[in-house]
Amino acid sequence: MNRELLKSDLNISSFFRPQTFLHALRQETAHSLHEPLVSLQLVTALSTPPEGAPLSVCLEGILLQGAFIDSSDVLQPIETADEPALFPMPKVYVAWMSKPPLSKASIAVSLYTNATKEKFLIDLMLPCASEADVKTFILAGVSLLLEP
């Protein structure tokens, strides 16, 4: 894998096969750490790369459906039906780690190629204010999309 590519922000929505890229990143991380693939977990961070990650990538071009990210990088519910259905995500840093840092309250949000949700890519862990909010986001059907 070209490490120069990993240093720039990547618009994952323009990838022909984004899932293949994420798998290649996992394989490269396993190779560099001398760890088995099954021992790696995907770690997500919004403002800075995950601490201690050997290979992290900054992704952009992701849309959030059913919620939004506030200024403190925390998932928030949509208050009214008048709000837009899709919000652009801030830059998302992802990395595969064998020993991920302990996370605060977070929810696994599924990433799909488009709004039909026919093609699932991966779950990204997004921070939320509390564990009680997790149920709210599940009921709201919060998801991530590469294109509307």
From TrEMBL:
Highest taxon listed in the record's lineage? Eukaryota
Recall the GO molecular function terms of this protein's record. dynein intermediate chain binding; dynein light intermediate chain binding
Any single Pfam family the record assigns to this protein: Dynein_C
Where are the membrane-spanning stretches?
none
Which residue intervals define the domain Dynein heavy chain C-terminal in the entry? 10-146
Q: Give the GO terms filed under biological process for this record.
A: microtubule-based movement
Q: Which InterPro entries does this one have?
A: DHC, Dynein_C, Dynein_C_barrel
Q: Which PANTHER family match?
A: DYNEIN CYTOPLASMIC 2 HEAVY CHAIN 1, DYNEIN HEAVY CHAIN
Mind telling me what this protein is named?
Dynein heavy chain C-terminal domain-containing protein
Q: Which organism was this protein described from?
A: Trypanosoma rangeli
